[in-house]
Amino acid sequence: MMTCERQQGFTLLEVIIVLGVMGLLLGTAVPLAGAVVQADRRAEASSELADIADALDAYWFDKASFPSGLTDSDFLGVYLQPGPMNTATGDAFRNQPYVFSVSGGIATVYSVGENGVDDGASNEELIVRIHAAVPGTRKTWMRLRWIVELLAEHIEAGGSVAGSWPVVRASIGLGASFDNDGWGNQMQWTAATHTLTSAGADGVFGTGDDITI
């Protein structure tokens, strides 16, 4: 009795089915992989922008100004650590620094995002803004609190408070850096009332943001 055995291997139909399934799997996997990469880049950009914002805040606190660029030698490596392969200021979506500008006492830093195109600060999602008024106010109040203590001791000891603020400041033992407030503007001393005034963020005395002790 003769028997028929099926020949081992795949039929053309089976091969076509397998290739079709593989195509479907690849078609699904590639977009998913791309989405994961984009999510990683977004997370990286968000983290780096937060670090840059903190560094710019600290820079203003010390210097009463913002750097001219994120790669300035007195900013990068001093206030902002370069990161692995010097990537701290490099946009995760594009091989060049994050977009940085300063206007009206506000430093703006942003990423061009997934499309890799600079659509402008108002149209980008990954963006941070550092208002000079924030570190400026903090620094001014810290200086004023320190000055109040020294002035009180100076007056109790019978010291003179006559003259301009630089004169009084020197008499209580403070350095020339204390002539200015947190925005880099010279403070105003009124001897008759023993008051010291910062012009505030706008740099103009007599306006609503003045700070007086």
* Uncertain residue segments: none
Name the beta content range.
Answer: 5-15%
Number of helices: 3
Assembly classification:
single chain
Please write the string of helix (H) and strand (E) elements. HEEEHHEEE
Outline, from the CA principal axes? rod-shaped
**Please, how many domains?**
2
**Estimated structural class:** alpha+beta
Helix content: 25-40%
Kindly state the number of beta strands: 6
Could you explain how this protein is built, in words?
The chain has 213 residues and is α+β, with helices and mostly antiparallel strands. The chain has two domains: 17-131, no CATH class; 136-212, no CATH class. It has three helices and six strands. Helix 1 (12-63) packs parallel to helix 2.
